[in-house]
Amino acid sequence: MLQVNDYPISVRFDPEVGIFSPCIETIERRVSDLRKVFYDHQAVQSILNSGDRLIYEVRTYPFITNKSDMTLGVTRIFPGKVGDEYHMTKGHIHERDDQPEIYYCVYGCGYLLMDTLNGQFRVEPLESGVIVHIPPMWAHRVVNTGNGLLVFVACFHVPAGHDYSLIERQGFTQIVVESYGKPTLIPNKKR
Ligand code: PAN
Ligand code: ZN
Fold first, then answer.
1. H or E element: which one contains 17?
2. Is the pTM of this model over 0.90?
3. Which of 10, 88, 114, 181 lies most in the core, judged by the most C-beta atoms within 10 Å?
């Protein structure tokens, strides 16, 4: 049960590492958690044969008052690729159709991919200082194309809910792979 607290609360964010504390929950996502999400299943299997490496971590703090429910989330995506596809978040759409979100990229470089259910697609390049508003009913995923950590802060409401099933089945309109040494967006063959 999340604790209700009607008083102001602050946490401290360490920009050197991209971690704030105190936090309420930390979620780790490894290659095995994204096995259906990366397109190259052979590459997934060969990584899993030699260990299940961490792709990203999410730290959250749901600020619950008697009248509101705002969550702070900070995601750290480690650099790397699975096959030629860059490390990325699973990606989801919010369950409720009236729930937007704000992402603030603290550092790193990559892309925020966004899709609607009726086939619209947008890409926002991410680097230190970029803030993006994700409107309701736009699925979202962040891809880290850099050599270091990509860290972003998110703000969303707890009841927004996270639906992963659609993205796990069909992915986003485009995927981000390394081609001739450069991050490149190409059509997703599942779509
Ligand atoms: C973010 C994401 C976080 C991890 O806090 O939940 O970056 O991505 P996945 O949830 O797709 O694994 C957010 O968008 N919250 O709504
Ligand atoms: Zn979200």
1. none
2. yes
3. 88
